[in-house]
Write the structure tokens for this entry.
Amino acid sequence: MAPPRAPPPPPPLTINPPLLNSANPWATTLSHLLTLYASPYTGAVTTRTSLLDGYPHDDAINQYTFFSPTTQTPSTSTTDPSATSASASASLNTLGYSPLPLRTYLSFITTISAAATASAPAENENGLGGSGGLRRDKPIIVSVTGSPADVARCYDLIRRCAATVCMPLAMEVNLSCPNIDGGKPVPAAYDRAAVVAYLVALRGAVAEGVDADGDAGDGESVEGDGEKKKAVVVPIGLKTPPFTHAGMFADFVAALTDVLPTPISFVTAVNTLAPSLVLVPSNPNPNPDAPDANTTTTPSSSLLRPALGSATGLGTGGMAGAPLHPLALGNVLGLTRALGAAEALRGRVMVVGVGGVEDAEGWRRMRGVGAGAVGVGTALGRLGVGVFERIWRGVEGRATAGARL
């Protein structure tokens, strides 16, 4: 029996325009994803992070809210985006992953592919979709997580789906959710050995996929009747948590160089920052001798309680939006420089910048520090899919004005 074929170099992830949504609660349902895909201002669509079997979501402990980063005042205690004030540019969440399993997302993608195939092509010279139909070349990034063996299985399922749909697919492995314990003290991306374990599993999955397709060595597989079919290799990315010192960047990039050739095409930076806490006034405890474990006191003795429920009961979760933006910029810059300094990775791994972007200026800042594309999360929840038009029209407006000078 022939040994498994060596995996080919990872294909690049092309996002045009370089603007997309991040994996978040507003990319959970088919309606969410179809609306994002239909927008002419998204260059790719990312699904909410899923597991092979779905996450056991509990409304009592898996919540989110928007809040003002200056006053710390939540816009709403009911997690209703429609009640969000203009000043509530930050978010806090105690969410886990999507309650929908990976196979459900693959069925959503099949449905979107059928709709795109049935509609008139909708590309123009700028890569933006028009009003006549759905683009067929817009990538869908399927965000997944689980054990190394689980994500290898996820890759196989996504690869098989990619062979049947009209649009390119990619896979993002979320190694950074701060709200999941799973028996481990830190998100996997903080642990070099854990990252290496995922990379080994992913490289093996890619090699097995190529071998299963009977790759002929030129990116095409030969079928029994002599007809050639393109072998499917899906771009893979890793989603990272915020890194806070130089050693974290060095360890992460060292993990990537421990497994060469790398199976990775992109890194999404960053996920939310935890442990973060938003407090709201609480009614006075009627029994001061038995204080509520979920309240704390300020120097003025005002009783406060967490704005959100959480699995721990402490109400801490991941912060995103405007307060995260400077840290996200620093992470994108740090990663692009660290990746560029590693000869084996230089020019091979794109960074997708995520964190606090809600306008053209934020997009430009991300691009200015090296992001190949820019993702939007909290602003999508606050402002809806129209935020992408707002951002891209701002980008184009500045470019048009500059061309006239």
DSSP finds nine helices and 17 strands in the chain. The first strand starts at residue 19 and ends at 21. The mean pLDDT is 88. The two ends are 66 Å apart (CA to CA).
